[in-house]
Specification:
- The structure holds 3 protein chains of 3 kinds.
- By secondary structure, chain B is an all-alpha fold.
- Chain B is built from 14 helices and 2 strands.
- The N and C termini of chain B lie close together (10 Å).
- Helices cover 34% and strands 19% of the residues of chain C.
- Classes of the chains: A mainly alpha, B mainly alpha, C alpha+beta.
Chain lengths: 292, 344, 589
Amino acid sequence: MDTLRRLAKRPLGMAGLILVLFWTVIALTAPLIAPPGERQRDPYTIRRIGFSSIPQPPSDKARLGTTGGGYDILYGIVWGSRTALRVGLIVVGATTLIGTMLGGVGAYVGGWIDSLVMRITDLFMSFPFLIAVIVMSIVLGKGLDKVIVALVVFGWRRYARVMRSEVLSVKERDYVSAAESIGAGRLRIFMCHILPNSIYPVFVLSALDIGSMVLIAASLSFIGVGAEPGYADWGQMINFSRNWLLGAVGDPFRYWYTYVWPSVAILTFVLGWTLLGDTLRDVLDPRMRRMK
Amino acid sequence: MLFYIVKRLLVLPLVLFLLSALVFSLVLFLSPYERLAVFIPNADSVGSNIPFDELVERYGLNRPFHQQYALWLSQVLRGNLGWSPSARMPVAAAIAKYFPATVELMLLGAVIIFAGGIALGTYAATHHNRLPDQVARVATSFGVALPEFVFGLLLLVVFYGWLKLFPPGRLSTWAEDVVYLSDFHRYTGMHLIDSLLNGRFDVFADALRHLVLPSIAYSIGMLSTMLRMMRSSLLETLQMDYVTTARAKGVTERVVTIKHARRNALLPVVTLAGSIVAKMLGGAVIVETVFNYRGMGKFIVSAAQGLDFPAILGASLLIGLIIILTNLVIDLLYTVLDPTVRLE
Amino acid sequence: MGRTRWVVLGILVALLGGGAMAQSVNSPGTFIKATINSVETLDPQFMLSSATTELSFNVYDSLLDHPQGDLETLIPGLASVVPTADNGLIVVAENGTTYITFPIRTGVKFHNGAVLTPEDVAYTFKRALLVGGQASSINMLCQNLLGKASFSDLVDEVGYDAAYAQLDAMVTVADNSVTFKLPKPFVPFLGILADGGSGTGILNKAWCIEQGCWPGTKETGQAHMNKTMEDDPLFGAMNGTGPFMLASWEPMERVVLERFDGYWQGAPALERVIRRIVEDTQTAILMLKNGDVDFTTVDVADLPQVQGAEGVTVLDNLPSTWLMKINFVMDIAANSSFIGNGTLGDGGIPTDFFSDLDLRKAFQYSFDWDTYINEVFLGAALKPYGPVLIGFPTANPDNPQYYFDLTKAEEYFRKAWGGEVWEKGFHFTAVYSTGSTHRQRALEILKHGVESLNPKFRIDLASLPWAAHVAAIQNKQLPFSLFGMLPDVFDPYLPLFEHMHSAGGYANWSGYVELAKREFDPLIDELGSNYDPDRRRELSYELQRLDYEYSLSIFHFQAVEHVAMRDWVDGYYVGPFPFNLDFYALSKR
């Protein structure tokens, strides 16, 4: 496609794409790279190599070492990528759907539906996202699925706003009034004319959002809300490593493998999506295109 | 304009009411026994001096939802936000204590974000596609992608663990003594301001020292976002017709930037500011946890973990109020900066 | 832009300059302790957390005391003589009623200037029982002075007037002494009153009434029963006879104690003590190394960070009186969400699952103590002998014990429930409180052992925030409850009572009240009232053996503690809880 070609011309965008593809491949091949133990029922529970409270350095049994409690770091990173993709894609998919439908339909139909949607959006926006998600997750209980629910419940607002402003401007365009004048049904107009032309900013937002949703989920795991202990989640792995940051007396980096790997994983994952999103914005935004 | 403000303010109580009802409804997910557990202060003990059943009666925890809500609401309207078992003090007192701490952090962070973001964003835009711009683009991508807690932990280890420069918490022990014990008058609850008002520059320096690391860790992400927003918005404006006209007329580059372009470029920045305030309130949670900084973020998290609903409700009301007011201010600012925007 | 640059630079320089502050002993008269345990109340009769009792220990005094580090010998405290049968201060009547008289020391001052009188002593105990203080020593006294678990239980049974009459008769005041009347001899009584002020500290009646407490009369009693912690007037105030007085309390942040010059044993060496809450152990260790804090406890996994650090002394493997156990709940609530569909099989377990003895034994043999103690605790924990803690009198090292043996485990699993367990398997959820690593690991190791025997055995693990966790235990929702004992009096009666007596708490939570009433209560009651040491040993041994026979709980560890302090700290000695300090004995060089 034309867009892909433009994407290829930008080095930062390519870098982002490569990172995203890298993690996608890792996630897809997780069962091959880090097979779960024989008696392990749930592959998302990090494989344990013993129960030692002190992290063990990389060895044959655990290629990247273990954290305190015997959690295999390599296993955690690999399956954590699956978790990250799942969280990112589900949350962003759901919020995009809900937000664009609500905002788009409201804006197109106008009148009291539009006002209602706006008021609801305002209500949800009067609460800081992170705190709302934390409170809801804690009340709903432990488990990443509860976090996903909380993220979706509070995450659709921006999409509604963006979609609404786009639709408001698109619906004034010529081709829309032309279609209306020849008697095309409202649904058809919405789906075939309005939606495809307003959707670009939403794409950009989605790409950026995948990264930030994963960051937020990681932050929640870090403070102990969300995933059950032992679940393959990068934020949790960094939480596990908190006690080992200072190393031992005279050997401050002794446990570097407990925090370096998960941090790098999160960083590169989010970076990939961010670069991708940025570049998409540059590519898809007609005004920016004028400048290059 | 005035009419608009009044109209917006009238909606305020309605929104707060809805907000509190929403939060209160989360209560429906919990059994009375879970809600009572907040009265047991210690993880290793299982008893409480009053039988559970009596506590359930006393606090009306088995009554229907709307009755419980009405009861709570009537108390609030009388100015009583209730007792917070997780903070061991009345909810209002806890909020009065912890909120200024977060405000301090937010203020310092805001200075970094806005001053830094606008200045650096302008710099990058005016050097578009040259080295500073490239560096800015890459650096901000990292800034946005780096988890706050990782960065925070890193700062803590380096600057406190090795270099012993910036300690965690809000104040050193000796400064705490000054603030709590001597005739130090508490004006706002914010140590930075109070210490200046009390003439204690040593306490001011100490409070500032404790704020450095948290505010840096806290603002890196939003600074990056602000920088990019400023940069792209300014770039866009610089292309606009009236700017080209000004250039054609021979106005110097610097004047073009500052006078014409920046004013209009600030519009999206102002919009962003609104969402940043909301984000800052939330983002404080992580940073406060990492740095042991006792503010609203930590308070809310421990209240949530302890299922301390009076505290959660009280805090939600306050935060909701702030955000709504902030949005109002932002909308007003918008009209000042761009007269073509009409208030609906 | 140029000017701003200089301002920023200037601020940075100022900060860094301030940062390079000296690292010598800060204020030699002030002792700073870092702890993660926040204070729930300042009223010693309501304190539930053993870490909080450190405050009442230093601010209040009890009638008797122990010499430093020696928990078996009794010495006079606020009482001037230790009552014994020999000196006539303990008198046992024909029907068993016991009268114990304490002559009260004269000239002892409270922090507010008042002088200690016997009336204060009587008031302290009456108030404790009337108001329903839940501190464990007060509970224990209630059980043995009034015969019921709480005063309000007594009121429910015989009515307020009769109950109050009993309360009043319990303690009588003479000119310069106080006499307690016990319905029958209670051996640990003196030990409980020798806790240094932790739970049985003596309050000043006049001051308490000033604060809004019970005025001490019958008419006003009912209004003061069953107070919640926040309604308690002594929630935030302290006035005792101890070496330190309360200077300030910032809830969840710090407590400051100040030297009391009028202390009857002489003023302490330290001027001030600051007990600072630091929620993060890493930060506490950093602060210790930087000299910002003088003392902190250390987890075993953090030892490498402090051992060998400059200026820091580490004391490890200190015995502590904390025993943890995994309790089988024999009658789980029917609405529990942790038992699946409530029938034995791959969908769940029945509510009386653990009432089968063979099943409980099977679980015992499935727990791998070696891995738990060596890997999780890195060797820094003890495998208990049974319900009587190691180090307590009459603890029996030869008590029959369970140990890790999968062959035996399988044998018992096959027998359990007449063979049905082995055939149908089971599936339930074991719960631990969020953040409690030792509980989490214990359940993980148990799960590992059990599931390795039969693929039909399934145990899922879940965590609950502690508030919800405690509620679940109260509500009998959990198949296992992981709770232990922290007795602070060195008498086997206390842990045995708590663990095995029908009124001890565990019998109720774990569902063996009937069994306890039948088999254990008579022995435990005798243990509490018989002074003969040989007979007590016999009873204690028998009870420990019975616990083994009935397999009531898996005793998975008894804790040892590690502490770290700066080199300039003098005078530390190990008490029953190594993390609780006797500030009177401490000084800084």
